[in-house]
Amino acid sequence: MSFELTGKLVAINETQQVSDRFKKREFVLEISEEINGNVYTNYAKMQLVQNKCEIIDNYHIGDTVKVSFNIKGNKWERDGNVNYITNLDAWRVENAQPGAHTPPAPQSYPAQNTGNTNVNYNPSPENVDDLPF
Predict the structure, then answer these.
(1) Mind listing the domains of the chain with CATH numbers?
(2) Backbone torsion region of residue 62, taken as left when φ is above 0, otherwise alpha when ψ lies between -120 and 50, otherwise beta
């Protein structure tokens, strides 16, 4: 299931090479909403993984962006303790301000056994296997 969120970029971290087969890059969105006349501000830390780490390079702190993402969760057990980890895995970032500069189109991917012969085929995140295991 995929979600979208629009907010202001307040932090962009460097890419982290977590293991020899997995890398990630975190960024933070500031999201403000008005409820009953009061403005509430929240901060959502999101991550880009593997070949998606570079898509945030086209944006700067202060830009308003629309992010498409999936919610990923894992159960982690150690020494009898159970922890749950939730990640917001971004797979697309777009400029949300009308008339603002639009970054170059994402890299095109060859068709992947979908019957699609379009050379600009860009698979949905559900069809791309970029997991580190």
Answers:
(1) 2-102 (2.40.50.140)
(2) left
